[in-house]
Every structure is written in C-alpha cells, then in structure tokens.
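Recap quiz, item 2
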Amino acid sequence: MSYLPSLAPSRTIDVSLGPQHPSTHGVFRMNVTLDGETVTKLQPVFGYLHRNHEKIAEGNSWLAAMPYTDRLDYICPLTNNWAYALAVEKLAGIEVAERAEYIRVITAELTRLQNHVAFLGFVLGDMGAWGTALMYAFREREKILDLFEALTGARMMCNYMRFGGCRCDLPAGWIESARKLVDGFPAFLDEMEALLTGNEILLARLQGIAPLTAKRAINGGLSGPVLRAAGVDQDIRKVDNYGIYNRFKFRVPRGSVGDCYDRFMIRILEARESVEILKQAIAAIPEGPVVNPKAKQRGFRPPAGEAYGRIEGPKGELGFYLISDGSDRPYRFRIRPPSLINLTLLEELCLGTKIADVMVILGSIDIVLGEVDR
Amino acid sequence: MTGILEAIRAALPSAGVELLQNPSPCAQHSLIVCPKDARAVAEFLRNSLGYDFCSNVSGVDWPARKVKETIVRKETVEGVETEVKETVEREIPGFLEAVYHVFSISKRSGVLTLRVRTGNRTDDVSIPSLTPVWKSADFQEREAYDLFGIRFDGHPDLRRILMWDEFADHPMRKDYNPPDDFEYEPTPHDEILVKVKARTEAA
Amino acid sequence: MLDEELKADLQKRGIFVASFEDLYNWGRKNSLWPLQFGLACCAIEMIATAAARFDMARFGAEVFRPSPRQADLMIIAGTVTKKMAPLVVRLYNQMPEPKYVIAMGACAISGGPFKEGYNVLKGIDRYIPVDVAIPGCPPRPEALLEGLIKLQEKIQGQRLFGPHRARHADTDDAADYPVPAYGAHDLEPALNPRIFRPDPPRRAGE
C-alpha cells in the first residue's frame, strides 16, 4: 500500500514547551499547537513557581515583607526593595533621607545594568548561542555583584532598603569602586555591540519577528523596555519623578517597529543611559544619614488607608498596592508583576511565527518566573 | 478626582459611582462603581477621558465584621425626656472586591482607582469583566478568580491561572484553611517572645 | 583491600593499583552530568557557578543536559511548588540509574522562607531521596561547589557489591517513585511514606 502524502489528512501537533526547558527563564510552560512549524495557538500555563508571597505577607509584619520582595524578580532584588519601600512611604507619608535617595538611584541603576547584561546572555542562549554570551555577561555581572556584596552583605537577596532610607551606609572606598566600574562599563557595552549587533544571524533571527504597535502595547498593559520598543514614550522615572530622578539628565530610548530587534537594542541603549545617570549620581552624592530617624522599622504600624506605589524596574512597571487596617501587618499586599502582564500579548505575538521564534519572542520580553507567579 | 467624577456623572447620569476617601497621606481616592455600570464607565474612561492603561487589577476580600456603635437617642423615662446611650452591634456584610488602577499614558496623569464590589462572598460573586476594555486585565482577573473566587462575566477565558485546575479552594480569602503540613520548628527567638509576653502581662 | 602504604610505595615507582570499584567511582564522580533544571533564585547562583568566575567545569560537571534521559545529577535549585512537584518526580523517574539529587537552597530542603505557603512543597525529600542538602538562601557558588565535592566523596565511597551496595547496584530496589496527583486541597499523597518519615510535628505552644 503506497502512502501518498497529498491524501494524508493534515493534523496539528500539540507540544508542551516546559516547564523544564533549556531556556533559562524558569518554570514556564506553553501549550503550543503547531501546524508544521507554524504556531496556530499558544496557551501559557503559570503557577509552577507560585510561592504565595501575598498570603505570607499578610501573616508577617511590614518590615518582614522586605526580604520576600528580594525573591520576586530575583535578578533585580534592590529595585524590588525600593518599590516596596516607596509604596510604604506613600502609604504612611514617610520622607526619605537625602543621601539614601542617591544611594537608591545608584543601586537601582547598577541593578538595571546587570539585568540588561544578563538579558543579553539569556536571549543569546535562547537563540542557540548557548554559553558564550552568557559567560561574558556573567563576567560583568559578577563585578556588580561584588559591589552589592560589599554594600549589603549578600550578592543577591540584598534586603537593603528600609522605610525612609537604606539599611546601612556605604563602606569606605565603595564610591571609588563604583566609579571605576561605571567608567569601565561603556567599553564592555562596546565590546558586546561589536560582537552582536552587526551579526547576520542575530539580525535574521530578530528583525521583523513579532512587531507590536503602540496602541496594542498600551492596551495590553505592557511596560518597561517592551513598551518603549513599541514606540511609546513612557518611562516611570520621567512620568512619576519618584525619588530624585528629576535631578539627572538622561534620555529615554524608543523603538519604532516593536519587533524583537527593537526590544533587544533598546536594552543596550538603556544600559548606556544608566551609565550616564550613575556618573551624575556618583559625582553628586551628599553626606548625611541614610535613613529617616523618625521612621519606625520594627513595630511599624501605618495608619489605615491604602496606596499604590510603582517604580520603573528593569523589567517594567513594578508596583505594590498596599492596604493597611492600622495593625502591624498588611491587610492586602498586592504585587503588580511586570513580567506576568508583559506576557498578556504573548499569544498574539507568536501566532503565525515558527516554533523557533517563540523562544526568541519569549526571551525578548525578558521575564522572570519569580515575578510572574509570585 | 472630583473632575473625573463629574465627567462620568455628566456622561452617564444613571451610573452608580461614588467617591471613597482614602485617609492615607498619599490621597489616592477611589471610585466605587456599581457592577452593572462597570463596563460603561470603563469604556467612557478609556474612550473619552484617555485612560488607556490599566496597570493593576487586585482582588480584595472583606469578610463580614461586627461593629459596635454607641448611639444616643432621646427617650421618655418616667415622664422626663433624657438622652439614653445604647451600644448596638450591627454586622457589615462581607463582599469581594476588584480594584483597578488605571493611568492615562498621553496625559501622564496620576493613578485612578476603580473599585467594583460583589454582592456577598458566597453566591453573588459575579461582576462584569473589564478585559474587553483593557486587555491587560486578562491574566489578572483570572488570578482574582483563582485566588478569591470572583467570577468575571464576559471574560474570554475564565479559568484558574496559578493553582492547578482540580484545586477547589480560593486560597487568598481570609477564612482559608491551609493543609496541615507546616511543621513548627522552635527557634531561640521563641524563648524571648515568651519572656516578653510574660513581662507585658505582668505589667 | 590493599594496604595504603604499599599503594603509595608502588605509586612512587609509577605503578598505580586500584580496585575496580574505585576506578569506576572515580570515573563517575568526575564527570557528573547535571540536569538543566533551575526552578527559582538558586538557579541563578547555579548559572553563576557554571560561569567563568566560579567554574564548575573544574569539577567535571559543566555538561548540563536538557533531557533527563542523559543526566545523572539533578540539582533541585529553588522552591518546589505543589504544582511543580509531580513533574519533578516524573523527571526524576526518567533519569536512568545511577542518579543523584542535590537539594540546593533552603526551599528545596524544607520549603525555606516560603514554608507557610499553601502551594509550597515543604522540601523535595518528601517524594524523592536527596543525597546532598546545601543550606543557604541562596547558597553562594562556593557552597554549591562544596556540596558537589561532598557528593563526589559520597560517590567515591559507594560499593557495588555486598549488603551495603549502592541503590543502582541493587536490582531488588524499586525503580520508579510514585508521582503525586493534584487533589482538591493538596497533593495526594502528601508525602511518600517509604522515604519520608519525619518526627511528629511539634505545634506552636507545646
């Protein structure tokens, strides 16, 4: 009996990508329906890292929630800390010490640098260049982690921000080391750009993949570099002017097409802008206390009320919605996860693309599962 | 906030919208929207006032609580009109709530908070979904359904998102009983806590 | 077994004497192939350990395999949630013997800081046997390397014959570990009684 391919009924294949997958974004699963190699349906499955941050926070004090925020977006613990401290300061009307504001900006921009650099490593691993770019990226990231360890005592999981300031002051010589690192960083970015941005394979795999319009991106609730790559001029550092960002001159890069290439390049450009902010902040940091002496940390009981505080995290708009009923524990501790909401349009972006492009699209959105599932 | 409230009342006069004051210093007041008008109000906000970015959707559980109030009423006691103080206990019924934080990207506005409340916590838990208005509410409304039990009518795909499908409870509710597998481990801090408790009780 | 002095003496003359077990274990311990399986924050420290500064390749374990069929070491790096637990057990079952498990980080050992969570499995040793536990939140890369060295020492000391032989040399031992199912309130069963027999829990206030 001969088998004639033209008479064979065409069928779609259901593939479950993940949760154990070589792509290092964590335990994320996508149920993909393929027609040959083209994606016809994509359903993300979440919850494999649902660690109940919100419920645990309701049972612990306000200060005890700070180490848990480290573990949300675990590549950027210091910005998570700042977002939570900012939301509590909004809730209770606490003023932040001046020197602490500068330290917060310096640590947040260093976090952004090491996040964008790790992104480069991971997205190239997703494309198949497993290992090489990751080694370069982690080499630079280790230098920044050394600074964090000298300041906070831990490489990751810094638990450094407090209500009204920071936990401890900069050790002697830290600013000098930071200045040296920041001065040497553009050379590393130049090295990466020379290796990557002219690369034919990279251009072929990133350009034109999953373009996104500004209107669709706004309606989908996207934030951070993904939104700016789609052409929207929205950077919460400029919009909300939280902290002391209005004292620094920096540009906000914007993409035009919103495809994977724009999402990739915008992070390199943002890293350069972060270097500019760091230079200005390191030059201008004043002396003084690092925490508001009137702010209470232990036994902290904010008055009843609620607040929504947000910052421009490296992945997007990280917000905390806190409801207090006057007691020493939060009544409601809601985390606005940029990574989860950036995945809202994942199915739309991936429909019609090839299965190999799905990993690139997911990599270009830059998610962290600790934040998606909380 | 009052400007927005007036604009909504002007455009949708029959909509049930009221202002809820927020006592916190950040003064982020919210608008409580009646469930039957939630879609219309959301569409008005997006199309006419430019609130196109729905940033956050949270579920909140407000269980029923008893409130003791002292009321003063005038009563005739033995022919003389006197004021009588009476302590009355009344129960505020519980409800579930979905809180929406929306922004306007073009206007660079501050946050606008919308609240939509269910009837009660048991059988009347349906409110309209705002996913057709703001797509960003998609996964977050699914999460509110999964963890709180709020049903969103008109949601394109309402099913559990974080817990597995066979899971039967709504864990973020205040009366959720977690499974009994948390083994308590004593720490050195427990002795200190016992001493502090004894000292505060003696004082 | 050979006398150590005689062994050292022969070594000086360029004659190496070893038992078959020692040679077999030496080869296995220096070429462990971990499964590329990071769950949460500890996975980033695991990647940092494999990266250039801490370099797990020095110990032979740099070949991370994406498929469990080709791996012999599973580093449980991160919190195991109840939703993920059946998949972890299934992956463990798919690994061929001899296989080892390192529980990296407080979450994999006992649930860690998320111990009160309703969706958090209080330690992966409820379902699969763990060989080395590395405490820390997250453990430093040096700590992961020390755990790896401890595992290598354990492998070196494994016997192939005799009553205390290793699990993979014992054909009577069970091959598959039962995979828990999703229940209405919790995983069913909540633990594997054959390998997890804790002391009865002490409640707060006792």
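The interface with chain A takes residues 35-41, 43-45, 47-48, 51-53, 66, 68, 78-79, 81, 83-84, 87, 91, 113-114, 116-120, 137-138, 140 of chain C (CB under 8 Å).
Helices of chain C lie at 4-12, 20-29, 41-50, 85-94, 106-110, 141-156.
End of item.
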